[in-house]
């Protein structure tokens, strides 16, 4: 073997070379190169191994380029290359060295100045089967060189040359033998496209048309993957950036609010010269807290972490909350007289008032027995306690549902037959109803909430139709009453003054019998969609581009005679701003920004009708904001069919296929954003096949849960309980800015009697506080809350124990206005209310102000909650998990110099999540975090922990998608799984108490009696819950997405950034040379330079 064989051999290469670099080896080798090359007759027996070694060393020496520049090795190597243009082996070695030199920005720019680019274009020829190794190596050097010398290539007109070379090699390489050469040529174009002038030159040279035509028939060819991936990136880079097709960036809805908020005047969006964003995007407003936390965001100031700030209001103000805690003072007779109270608009002061009275009102529509599944009259429905279901460990409650991505999810339900609901009951009235062609499906599917129907063309007939519909309503939808819902809806106040109700909210939802599988992503679906976007640009005559719905247009746009779909979002929680028909069955959709904001477009909920059954319709929501989404990892939107509901299957299902989520070409300028960088948008695209002709369907981001649904649910819950056993009281926390009431619910067990002992025990029960839905788009949080509420009032023995030992204070919806008006994240002031807990103000953030005030009051009377938990939804991770607060873990993660050994901290904050990891099929401890970030200092979790001293203060995040672990692995969440999580969370609170040091023997005995187990078995179960589980490996948020979301030009995953292939080539060459098997690529190739 040659003299450099030990360094060139694979074994120990890195270690040996790095040691050599540390001892000045790079400089020595470079100096040897310069000295040898400058001799009168260079010895290539020395130079070739030396160049190979320099290439390998240069890959591992970060300062190699600067060293080469200082020692004049760049010029020497260029001279050698020029001398050996006809000598392939010598030239190949020079190109390897030049490739390493070019990887440094400084040396790359210097090579460009010294004519390296012109040299390379002499080597890179149109298609040939000769000297292909040389041509490939030269294109790879050029690709690296153009990272720093792309402007020079543009100025010298090389963009057109590169496109011609690409076309020539593409058309002639029919056997795909030279894919890597073609890929290198495309990499050259991609680096040129980093410049605005490069993109302009590319477009002027018909680059979009050329790449589109050469690649559109190769998308499915796996052999061409290295080429197609770069083509896609170039097309995305060079697609002209444009503003969204909206008249203004601000929300279509405006609401006058008190106080000064950053004004956002209606800025007309105009075509501008948009530059590509340079920095990787971060989802700045995500409350998911799941992004790789930057260590500099961790709070390392121990004083801030451990300080307990004082009261943020006069202490006398706290007395107003005494009226919300009547359980601490009232006698049993007074409590009993409150049973059945209802919320009342007229008797509630506005948000500025401090006194908040208990509301009273007449009773509402009565509840039938069939509507209560957990109430005391339905004990037969509770076969076993929730605890017994998890005694033997987690168990799936539903069989796994496997369904192909293109199948209609309604097919399984339809197997029951027309007019048969999923429980087997005949629905004759609905069946007959559907056969009457005279009925107006549009009117039925989005009915007016007013009894007068004054705007209807056939008012009397309309009332009769709605009445007839409601008579057919299935009575076995638990905790739902359409009559009560309609009455509540009339009193719900919206910014747009909605007059109609969404049919699913009025009619109700019954979960499917089994959960749906995570959708298997179809390979290549994203690149096909991107090519369709490019086709629109280069073939605009094929695009209809007809606006069919818009909140911004004052005149009606719906053409009932045309073949296009009809849209609406003018109902509670609805969000669709504009619909544009692109092709016959393809629509671009834009969602509305949050009220008084120009941001937070993500939640959607809209009505669509006029479809044909079995025909695929594509929807592209083109102004989403988040940089990534679970829609790329198996999540589907939700769909509700009105005709299916009338046939006895009133169910929200996951629907849609060919789903992907990617960065598009729309931008919002920095001037409009009021910031320093422009805003990017993302497209969510999916295909839906509807189950019926001329149906009316609703599509939503997630299972909707409206404010009116909450009020209806609470009233029915209150009427379902036996007040002699369950103490259920509704109070009004406050009135919102929009004039809606924020309910506060108290649940505990009614004392056995009004004796002094019983009342004392009643009043001394510890508190647990649960809140939800501060972010309106996180409707999954409401379904979890629904499950918790229903379980707490149920006859389950666990629920009974919970009521007997705790007082639950529950605020089910912290942001009613946002929910009502279809916001994704904010209040009517355009504020994220979960960033207002530090210093809320009563007239600006009333729900947060009074929620915090209630917690301060409980603390002031010595009744701080044992657990505070705020329910949220999560858009970028799977499963359910908790975020808590820990000083030690935060300092340890930040590698703070402050010693944590002297800090005292109760580690009990970890107990509840550990219990839930044992109990809840959807929960995973591995995703939990207990870090305190500076950016989260004003969230409920951190403020309650820091200011109220609640060590078990949590945010519970539920995925919009589903699970990638446990019994529900591979399944999307349905409402059943979310409600189950709410119930199991409550179970976790009980076991947390039973396991606590202060748990009384009396409680353990009572628990054993109610749960029908002996104390020893109960103790064994509790020990099992607390025992350390098998080591849970950390779950990645997601595996890498098949296709890049935003096509960043500097992606760390870009294989061109890795020189492992160059290492391999060098090693192979060294082996052939030592074996005497030097490859000859052309005639007359010698080892001596041309003189």
Report on this structure.
- Among the domains are: 13-240, Leucine-rich Repeat Variant, CATH 1.25.10; 516-700, Immunoglobulin-like (Sandwich), CATH 2.60.40.3120; 707-897 and 904-1022, 3-Layer(aba) Sandwich (Aminopeptidase).
- Helix content is 37%, strand content 11%.
- Strands 12-13-15-14-16-18-17 form a 7-stranded mixed sheet, sandwiched between helices.
- The two termini are 30 Å apart.
- The active site is at 957 (proton donor/acceptor).
- It holds the Pfam family Peptidase_M14.
- Keywords: Carboxypeptidase, Cytoplasm, Hydrolase, Metal-binding, Metalloprotease, Protease, Zinc.
- This is tubulin-glutamate carboxypeptidase.
CATH superfamily of the domain at 707-897 and 904-1022: Zn peptidases
> What is the radius of gyration computed over CA atoms, rounded to a whole number of angstroms?
34 Å
Beta strand %: 5-15%
β-strand number = 18
Q: Describe the strand arrangement of the main beta sheet, using strand numbers.
A: 12-13-15-14-16-18-17
The assigned CATH architecture of the domain at 707-897 and 904-1022 is: 3-Layer(aba) Sandwich
Instruction: Tell the overall outline.
Output: globular
CATH class of the domain at 707-897 and 904-1022: Alpha Beta
Unreliable residue runs: 264-293, 335-383, 391-407, 413-424, 451-459, 1028-1037, 1047-1057, 1074-1091
- Total count of helical runs of at least 4 residues: 40
Structural class: alpha+beta
Major sheet, described briefly? 7 strands, mixed
**CATH fold naming of the domain at 707-897 and 904-1022:** Aminopeptidase
Mean pLDDT: 81
Separation of termini? 30 Å
- The helicity comes to 25-40%
